[in-house]
């Protein structure tokens, strides 16, 4: 059933106010106007079930700008060399550009998924993966659910520098890593900074996604870049660097459903290795099957040691295994996600909220 236009406009308004505000002036501006424009918002009525989101609309527009970089709209898109800030011409140009290409936009929207592969989130995930590996007592297998192109599966090969509020720096990862990530970290009043090992021993890795991205296909890579917000060129540069590095160590990427195919994907990794399952802003796309996903993890834990590292908004992720933490549900503007670590003992989850995290990996607050 096609999603109602008013619901699409509500989602666009929420995208502007919660996700883009304070992070992306361009997308905040465009989403705010799109939420009041029936013609532009209606383009999302062709999206597949659950995909009618601001991220998909602006990724489709970004892809069309990539294909026509001499259009006047491009001057507002730093990703293609633009350098103008938002002004009174931005929305009229965007609206006319997109509606003139409505057929192309609808084709992209109806056939594509949002395929964000935010490399900076590895800096958020690393402390939790390191904690899981320490508890596992040795080498681990990584399985990322909702992996897109699988770039986060290379997190053990990245270099990390965490800048603390007090001036202290934490470092981890190979000294000469091709991909270097920086993240600001502070601590809650009753917490201490985490202890980070220099390396994590990942012996096997695989990714599960409904539509894995093949980085050897230039069109697929271009779509991955289009899913990055256009006024955040550093994220695009980092994506390209990580993609080049990943081609040297390509993990196995498996096409399948996050719930129905989870056990099958896990079976592709050596059974003798403790399993660490990653999700990073993936469960919002699982919809009402989040509890089923967690139930599948519990079933897996009966066959091998399992840890779930989740970097999701609280309502989409950790609430299923750590209910009643309303203090984590909506924090700050834009809202903060939560880094969680869950394992199972006799089929029962043991869940911890480790940190509050900025959605795109730029900063985190460590909890007690």
Question: What structural keywords apply?
Answer:
368 residues, alpha/beta, eleven-stranded mixed sheet, 11 helices, 11 strands, 32% helix
Give a description of the structure.
By secondary structure, this protein is of the alpha/beta class. It contains 11 helices and 11 strands. Strands 3-2-4-11-10-9-8-7-1-5-6 form an 11-stranded mixed sheet, with helices on both faces.
By DSSP, the count of extended strands is 11
The tally of helices reads: 11
- Sheet bearing the most strands, described? 11 strands, mixed
Question: How large a portion of the residues is in β-strands, by DSSP E?
Answer: 15-25%
Task: Give the SSE string.
Answer: HHHHHHHEEEEEHHEHEHEEEE
Between the first and last Cα atoms, what is the distance in angstroms?
45 Å
Gyration radius, in Å: 20 Å
Q: How does the overall form come out from the CA principal axes?
A: globular
Helix residue percentage: 25-40%
Give a nutshell description of this structure.
The chain is an alpha/beta fold.
Write the layout of secondary structure elements.
Blueprint: H1 5-20, H2 25-34, H3 38-41, H4 54-67, H5 90-100, H6 102-111, H7 122-136, E1 140-145, E2 159-164, E3 169-172, E4 180-187, E5 202-209, H8 218-226, H9 233-246, E6 252-255, H10 262-266, E7 275-280, H11 290-300, E8 306-312, E9 337-345, E10 348-357, E11 363-366
Parallel strand pairs: 1-5, 1-7, 2-4, 4-11, 5-6, 7-8
Antiparallel strand pairs: 2-3, 8-9, 9-10, 10-11
């Amino acid at each position: 059933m096609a999603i109602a236009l008013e619901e699409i406009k509500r989602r666009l308004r929420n995208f502007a106010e919660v996700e883009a505000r304070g992070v992306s002036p361009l997308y905040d501006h465009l989403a705010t106007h799109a939420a009041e424009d029936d013609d532009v918002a209606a383009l999302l009525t062709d999206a597949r079930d659950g995909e009618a989101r601001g991220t998909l609309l602006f990724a489709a527009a970004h892809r069309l700008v990539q294909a026509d970089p001499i259009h006047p709209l491009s001057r507002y898109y730093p990703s293609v060399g633009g350098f103008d800030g938002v002004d009174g011409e931005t929305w009229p140009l965007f609206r006319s550009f997109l509606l003139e290409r409505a057929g192309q936009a609808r084709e992209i929207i109806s056939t594509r998924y949002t395929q964000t592969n935010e490399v900076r989130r590895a800096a958020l995930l690393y402390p939790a993966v390191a904690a899981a590996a320490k508890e596992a007592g040795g080498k681990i297998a990584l399985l990322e659910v909702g992996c897109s192109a699988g770039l986060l599966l290379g997190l053990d090969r990245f270099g990390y520098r965490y800048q603390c509020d007090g001036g202290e720096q934490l470092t981890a990862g190979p000294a000469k890593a091709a991909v270097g990530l920086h993240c600001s970290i502070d601590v809650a009043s009753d917490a201490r900074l985490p202890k980070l090992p220099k390396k994590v021993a990942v012996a096997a890795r695989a990714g599960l996604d409904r539509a894995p991205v093949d980085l050897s296909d230039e069109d697929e890579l271009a779509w991955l870049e289009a899913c990055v917000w256009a006024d955040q060129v550093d994220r695009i540069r980092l994506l390209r660097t990580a993609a080049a590095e990943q081609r040297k160590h390509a993990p196995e990427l498996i096409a399948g459903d996050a719930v129905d195919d989870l056990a099958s994907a896990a079976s592709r990794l050596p059974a003798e290795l403790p399993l660490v399952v990653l999700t990073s802003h993936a469960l919002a796309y699982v919809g009402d099957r989040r509890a089923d996903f967690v139930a599948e993890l519990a079933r897996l834990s009966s066959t091998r040691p399992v840890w779930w590292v989740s970097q999701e908004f609280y309502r989409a992720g950790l609430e299923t295994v750590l209910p009643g933490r309303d203090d984590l549900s909506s924090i700050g503007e834009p809202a903060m996600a939560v880094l969680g670590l869950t394992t199972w003992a006799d089929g029962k989850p043991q869940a911890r909220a480790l940190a509050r995290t900025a959605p795109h990996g730029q900063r985190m607050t460590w909890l007690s």
